Each structure stands twice: as structure tokens, then as C-alpha cells.
């Protein structure tokens, strides 16, 4: 397993994107509104993969500067991971298809942070790239 990138809730999308651009992040693409907000995916200039996902939802302003929307954890076998979590007493939502060959599940940690285990389609790189938004 690995964690490809965290999703961080942001209150002001454009000001946040300007801040991350100033740090050197490049915008890879934007995802249409989802049930948890509107994600924009970023990568660092020397990295081939998305490494940060600011998520904007005007109806849910960030009240805690440490707020995390949903860290993503890559799993080679999502069904086995969900079963292992259940065996350990951790409830996870059932894996769902979330794109061509991609499956995700939802898990909530003890502090209420949502975690998104993901399984990429066979042959997909170890993280998100520009090709996922082409």
C-alpha cells in the first residue's frame, strides 16, 4: 500500500491555488463537483504524479487550518483491504467503481477524517497523472 496524495479542504480556491503555485505546484486538472467538493489536482515540477488535491466547497468553509478532506491510500487489492479492516473492527464503505477500472472505498478514522482507499486499473501508474484528465 502507499499514499499517493492528500486532499486538503480549502476555503478560497483561487487564493489557495495561487499559494500552491507560488510554492512550485503545477495544476494537472480539475474534477467536476463531487459529493465532497470540487477538487483540483496538483503535482510538483519534478514529480510525475499528483501529490496534492485542494478541495473547495463553498458550503463547507475550513474552520480548522489542519482540516484534511480525504487522504488517499493506494491498495493493490481493495476487496482484501476492506475485508481486513472489517476483521479488525473498522467499518469501510463497500468498494465502488469510480472511473474506468478504478475502484474506491470510504473509511472514517477515529477523529472523523475520511480516508479513500483506491485501486487503480491494471497497468495504471502508481499515482494520478495528466493522462487521467486527458
From TrEMBL:
GO terms for molecular function: lyase activity. Residues 90-134 are annotated as: Disordered. Residues 2-120 form the VOC domain. Keywords: Lyase. It comes from the Bacteria. Gene3D superfamilies: 2,3-Dihydroxybiphenyl 1,2-Dioxygenase, domain 1. Residues 90-101 have a biased composition (Low complexity). This is Lactoylglutathione lyase.
Amino acid at each position: 500500500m502507499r499514499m499517493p496524495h492528500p486532499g486538503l479542504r480549502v476555503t478560497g480556491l483561487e487564493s489557495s491555488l495561487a499559494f500552491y503555485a507560488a510554492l512550485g505546484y503545477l495544476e494537472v486538472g480539475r474534477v467536476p463537483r463531487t459529493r465532497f467538493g470540487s477538487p483540483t489536482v496538483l503535482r510538483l515540477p519534478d514529480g510525475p504524479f499528483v501529490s496534492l488535491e485542494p478541495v473547495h466547497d463553498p458550503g463547507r468553509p475550513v474552520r480548522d487550518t489542519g482540516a484534511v478532506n480525504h487522504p488517499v491510500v493506494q491498495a493493490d487489492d481493495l476487496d482484501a483491504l476492506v475485508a481486513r479492516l472489517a476483521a479488525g473492527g473498522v467499518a469501510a464503505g463497500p468498494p465502488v467503481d469510480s472511473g474506468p477500472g478504478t475502484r474506491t472505498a470510504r473509511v472514517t478514522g477515529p477523529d472523523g477524517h475520511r480516508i479513500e482507499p483506491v485501486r487503480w486499473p491494471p497497468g495504471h501508474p502508481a499515482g494520478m497523472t495528466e493522462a487521467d484528465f486527458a
